Amino acid sequence: MGILFPTFAQHPCDCFIKGVVLDRDSRQPIPGAAVFIKELQKGTLTDAEGHYRIDQLCQGQYTVVSSILGYKQVAQSVTLVHTSEQNVLLTEDDIHLQDVNVTAQRATALSSQTVSQLEGKALDQTRGQSLGDALRTVTGVTTLQTGSSIAKPVIHGMHSNRILILNNGIRQEGQQWGSEHAPEIDPFVANRLTVIKGAAGVRFGSDAIGGVILVEPAPLPTTKTVHGELNLAGFTNGRQGVASLQTEGGFGKRFGWRVQGTLKRGGNIRTPRYFLDNTGISEQNVSAALGYRSARLRSELYYSRFATRLGIFSGSHIGSLSDLQAVLEKGEPIVKSGFSYAINRPYQQIVHDLLKWKTDWKLASGGTWSLTLARQLDDRMEYDLHRPRNDSLAALNRPELRFRLTTYTGDLIFEHKPLANKLTGSVGISGFYQFNIMNGRPLIPNFRTYNAGIFWIEKLKLNRWEYEAGLRYDYRHMQVFRYENRVLEKPLFVFRNFSGTVGATYSINDQWTARFNAGTSWRAPNVSELFSDGVHHGAAAYELGDRTLQPEVAYNLNLSTEYTGKKVQAEVGLFYNTIRDYIYLKPQAEPVLTIRGAFPAFKYTQTDALYAGLDASLTTVLLPKLSGTSKLSLLRVQDVVLDQPIVMTPPNRWENSLRYDLGKWAGLQDVFVGAGNLWVARQNRVPGGPRSATSDFIPPPPAYSLWNLTAGFAIPVSEKRQLDVGITVTNLFNTVYRDYMNRFRYYADDPGRNASVRLKWKF
Fold first, then answer.
1. Which residue would you say has higher pLDDT here, 760 or 203?
2. How far, in Å, CA of 700 to CA of 694, rounded?
3. In whole angstroms, what is the distance from residue 354 CA to residue 373 CA?
């Protein structure tokens, strides 16, 4: 059949094609899919709900092509008279290059920034791990550990208050200032984890100096059919078991719902030579969502509760200076125990509640208003090693430290309609009110904070170029309440500053893209950095603040390029970041002896810092069924005032892996096997040199190399159902090592061999 190309004189070119792109199996919307008309080379991307629309078309017959990485391309013939609604169902593509890789795609941040996403089968291979451990598969991301069960994500060497985490669109607010305060988020709520590398303060507010992590659930279903997913995971090290169940469905054509829950239980972790006493974990999480949608209105109510009890390695709490010195010299715990599920003192107990309401209203003129309101309550209880002298039951159950942080957040954003199909943008205001109530022995005072911000972002697309710019202003008011010599003081701190960004993206061709972004962001000192004064038992450290600290101001430059071909996928990113008045915990010359024991001492200190480095990844198809992946992360951090390195920054890393896909084998489907190696260099860039213990109590540990094995397959159960099975063995050869980014490396080795089995059943 021939293709018709009507002229303007014959027919007006005011037609359009619209529709929604869905996953064929789950019927879930697919955001970010490319939909274009082959004959005109004109197209668009689907929005967050999978919808697309292509305007200003003439009548005629066209071929509509839909595609996205990880799915088979679909081409459909459309005869257009005036309007056409063309929905698309995409089927997952068994392209092994994309199954095993973390891919960089556009997200809700500025498109000139480097964005990596963990989803699909790559995300499934991390199920059962914490959020920090799951994100370690992303190039340029590592973790700050406190023992074996607590991990915080680190992006380009930055963590804690320099990284923003958005949990289902809400700025996660907990006691993230502590090195052992892991994010209070259940990764099972997400069907995608997105990492935005570099300053993103214009869109997300102050504190996003190092980057942003988006924990994104799938859109709520629009069909009446009830379906769901059951995930089970078991780990040999710690004898840990994890179970997570999610069900969802709809009411009528306008309502959708989802309910999810997770249980986790594990015992003492074992190093290659001994068990780590009191390193068990117990976790119970639940979430629920209810949504309504119509042609113009979309509204969603969401609630989640994260509850965990974490054992703190007892060998990190030492009673005397002589015993502490002996442990530092010998490098092993004084007392070694066997396996146990018991979680005794010291331990942490955390409950984090999140309630969110979001409403979007599409105007007839084409713009969209979005209002998001949320409340969070973070209740953190910390129990010291030694029991209170009063042996009453009430005293035994009372934590020595309790932090109750309540946060109210609100965002109002307007996205204007595209102007001339080239200019898009948004303007918004955001704010939060937060107060903290602290009980127990002194460490940080109570405080109350108000924050308000306003931003404006615009994007201009011209042929293969896309330009963008944004500006934001934030104001923060913090009132502190503390007793000094039994007299109540109320010091007031007011911080304000601008954030800005400019960037450009150039599509060299359909496979090759280059990005540049320059931005500035800032971060106010938090209450712990200003007023800490005492033993922080969870971190096994004595910490001292400084009330004269000034806000950090960062200037970021990022340059990256990505290539995606049929057999090769590559990405290289360079970053150069300077931070004025950089705040960090500086180790002091001598440990501190208190009535609760002997602890390494740290003081919050300020300087000017330089962060520079490179991320690179390469995945290639070596043979028809064999693919290989290589990831390299290089980082250099320098105190530019003292002209010396800064402590506790990640060493260089190089990771390599091979994967062989058998496809169908012995009645099984999607069969694959893989092997990999992670090499982590010794952190030689420390004050005084790599052999010096003067800057950090003991010299940095030596480099290490860890091997791992992976395998997976699907067991067909029926024509439409299958059981997915994943097997992983980490630290295959039970290597003895210590990671420089583990705060407990002073006292013990890191975990030994760990085999895991993951089962996934979709119904």
1. 760
2. 11
3. 11
Query: Residue 343 is encoded by which pair of tokens?
Result: 């979680």
Running DSSP on this structure, what letter comes out for residue 217?
Answer: P
Least trusted range by pLDDT, from 98-102, 483-487, 649-653, 663-667: 98-102
User: Exposed (0-12), middle (13-18) or buried (19+): which is 85, by Cβ within 10 Å?
Assistant: exposed
d(CA 17, CA 13) in angstroms, rounded, equals 12
Residue 270 vs residue 1, higher pLDDT: 270
162 has pLDDT over 50: yes
Element containing residue 132 per DSSP (H, E)? helix 131-134
Place of tokens 């190696």: 677
How many angstroms separate the CA atoms of 748 and 691, rounded?
Answer: 19
* Residues in the chain, total: 763
Amino acid at site 393? L
Whole-number Å distance between alpha carbons of 126 and 760: 12
Q: Would you say 631 and 622 are in contact if contact means Cβ atoms under 8 Å apart?
A: no
Q: Distance (Å, rounded) from C-alpha 752 to C-alpha 736?
A: 7
Q: Three-state SS for 204?
A: helix
CA 264 to chain centre: 20
d(Cα 680, Cα 698) in Å, to the nearest integer?
A: 18
DSSP lists the bridge partners of residue 36 as 43, 65
Q: How far is Cα 315 from Cα 174, in angstroms, rounded to an integer?
A: 27
**Residue 396 phi, psi (nearest 5):** -65, -30
Record the pTM: 0.84
pLDDT over threshold 90, residue 61? no
CB-CB contact of 352 with 284 (8 Å): no
Residue 102 has pLDDT above 50, yes or no: no
DSSP 3-state of 16:
strand
Give the count of beta carbons closer than 10 Å to the beta carbon of residue 691: 9
Backbone angles phi, psi at 123, to 5 degrees: -70, -40
- pLDDT exceeds 90 at position 38: no
Q: What digits encode the pLDDT tens for the residues 551-589?
A: 999 999 999 999 988 889 999 999 999 999 999 999 888
Please say if the pLDDT value at position 358 is more than 90.
Answer: yes
**Contacts of residue 290, Cβ cutoff 8 Å, sequence gap at least 6:** 220, 255, 256, 257, 300, 301
648 has pLDDT over 80? yes
The per-residue pLDDT for 27 is 63
Query: Concatenated DSSP letters for 511-536?
Result: SEEEEEEEEEEEEPPPHHHHH-EEEE
Using CB atoms within 10 A of its CB, is residue 512 exposed (0-12), middle (13-18) or buried (19+)? middle
Domains of the chain: 15-90 (2.60.40.1120), 96-212 (2.170.130.10), 213-762 (2.40.170.20)
Our measurement of the distance from residue 598's CA atom to the centroid of its chain's CA atoms, rounded to an integer in Å, reads 34
Residue 433 CB burial class (10 angstroms; 0-12, 13-18, ≥19)? middle
Q: What is the mean pLDDT of residues 66-76?
A: 83
Report pLDDT for 398: 84
pLDDT in tens, 669-685: 999 999 999 999 999 99
Residue 121, classed as helix, strand or coil, is helix
Which residues sit opposite 579 in a β-bridge? 554, 609
Compute φ and ψ for 209, nearest 5 degrees. -75, -45
List the one residue out of 743, 607, 734, 762 whose CA is nearest residue 236: 734
Instruction: Give the Cβ contact number of residue 621 at 10 Å.
Output: 17
Catalogue the E-assigned strands of 588-682: 592-594, 597-599, 601-623, 626-639, 644-645, 653-665, 668-680
Adjacent-strand bridge partners of 291: 256, 300
